[in-house]
Amino acid sequence: MSLTLADDERYCFTVEWYEEMAARVRQFQFFYFVKAQSIEMYDIKNRKMFLRTSVKENNISPADLYLGNSINVCGRLLNIVDYGDDYTRRKLSAKKERTLGMIKPDAVDKLGQILDKICQKGFLISRLRMCRMNRNQALSFYQEHQSKPFLNALLDYVTSGPVVTFEIVGENAVGAWREAIGPTDPSAARKTAPTSIRAQYGQDVTFNAVHGSSDPGAAAREIEFFFPSSGPVPPNTARVGNCTCCIIKPSAVKAGMAGKIISAITEAGFQVGATQMFTLEKANAEEFLEVYKGVVHEYSAMVVELTSGPCLVLEICAPEGSPPVAPAFRELAGPTDPEIARHLRPRTLRALFGSDKIKNAIHCTDLPDDGQLEVEYFFRILDR
Ligand SMILES: Nc1ncnc2c1ncn2[C@@H]1O[C@H](COP(=O)(O)OP(=O)(O)OP(=O)(O)O)[C@@H](O)[C@H]1O
Q1: Least confident of 25-29, 91-95, 336-340, 342-346
Q2: Burial (CB count <10 Å: 0-12, 13-18, 19+), residue 59
Q3: By C-alpha distance, which of 115, 111, 219 is closest to 175?
Q4: pLDDT (tens digit per residue) in 266-277
């Protein structure tokens, strides 16, 4: 018996797409049919069907369907702005709680290890950026501690260097993340929650490595602080000096390899000057990869891969006075094809983390002179 769409479980959302050619935001009803594995979009203003496509072709799963997320459907970047019906709201809202996590300055050099641990604990990171707060911003973030005796020490601490902030989405995200980080004081954590993040990476009650929102209200406010839809945010930390660009590709992010790749990069002596999660529109991916158009016959597949989900962009830097970083980083990246890399250079990133020529774990800048340009593209032009 064939399944009609009317019998199928269906999730419905309101989504927005910024149509660049017309410079306007268009609204659609977005339908996700669970059993049929199909997607339909209905143009709200023009009251007609806009497109019908398959879930597989667009690499979208129910885990991607939550408010605030951006999904790529047929090359269009859609922002999920609201539930489209009560059934979807009831069914999905409890499963899609959000919270804010932060890696504090003393633990940012453990970024790879902490991200890996977050991933192993099964959390989904939906947005992430490295930034640096000034004192006023830190005071505003920690407004509930204005009268606490430790306020000054706390402000000194969180403004002493970059922090990495991220949004986690999932069932009971606030409580689950608080449990994962452990008690405020790392020495207590080492006794009562030895596998928690503070037990493993925290030093003392002030320098305790990570933050987690205390309740859903605080989470909403803190997410808005670091990821507002408009208005100022603490700036990203890109230095754009002796640097090169590395993109951990969507397939590697989805496979949970981002933390391990970052650890391999820092263990090889490179510094991560800045990092941010981006979900790219087709037009941006085409623009970024334009140098390969007509040169590399996998160009179209590279664009599809780069737009297939969130990627993590890193500014790779070397310590002061080092030789140009781009050629050295290309050595660590290894040959484009992971199969060749595994034969010739088995310790390179693509040999260790890539699966094929397109899903080869990372993009890295080809020509040394382009390193700054690629870093600027993400951190000066596309940032937010
Ligand atoms: N007694 C203290 N002395 C010094 N610093 C402290 C003290 N208590 C807390 N802090 C610092 O202030 C931060 C906020 O304190 P709070 O009581 O909200 O703890 P928390 O909720 O476990 O931590 P966070 O809000 O960072 O997730 C702590 O994470 C820690 O860095």
Answers
A1: 91-95
A2: middle
A3: 219
A4: 999 999 999 999
What local confidence, expressed as pLDDT, does residue 59 receive?
84
What's the Rg (C-alpha) of the chain?
22
- pLDDT tens per residue across span 188-236: 999 999 999 999 999 999 999 999 999 999 999 999 999 997 888 999 9
Q: How many alpha carbons lie under 13 Å from residue 119 in its C-beta half-sphere? A: 16
Name the pTM for this structure. Answer: 0.89
Query: Which of 229, 215, 254, 179 has the alpha carbon at shortest distance from 97?
Result: 215
Q: How far apart are CA 306 and CA 76, in angstroms?
A: 13
> Is position 279 annotated in a ligand binding site?
no
Kindly tell me the burial class for residue 56, based on how many C-beta atoms sit within 10 Å of its own C-beta (0-12, 13-18, 19 or more): exposed
| CA–CA dist 131, 238 (Å, integer) | 9
The ipTM estimated for the assembled molecules is: 0.94
* Residue 206 Cα to ligand 1 middle (Å): 6
Q: What letter represents residue 171's amino acid?
A: E
Query: Going from the N-terminus, what domains does the chain have, and what CATH number goes with each?
Result: 5-92 (2.30.29.170), 95-226 (3.30.70.141), 243-382 (3.30.70.141)
Give 2's DSSP letter.
P
What are 161-171's pLDDT values in tens digits? 999 999 999 88
Q: Going by DSSP bridges, is the β-strand pair 271-278/243-248 parallel, antiparallel, or unpaired? A: unpaired
Nearest to 268 by CA among 319, 332, 320, 192: 332
Other Cβ atoms less than 10 A from the Cβ of 293: the count is 12
Structure tokens at 225: 């602080």
Kindly give the number of the ligand 1 atom that is closest to the alpha carbon of 158. Answer: 31
Is 182 a pocket residue for ligand 1 (Cβ < 6 Å)? Answer: no
Residues marked as catalytic:
211, 363
- 151 in ligand 1 pocket by Cβ < 6 Å? no
Tell me how far apart the alpha carbons of residues 353 and 367 are, in angstroms, rounded to a whole number: 22
Q: Are strands 38-43 and 24-33 parallel, antiparallel or unpaired?
A: antiparallel
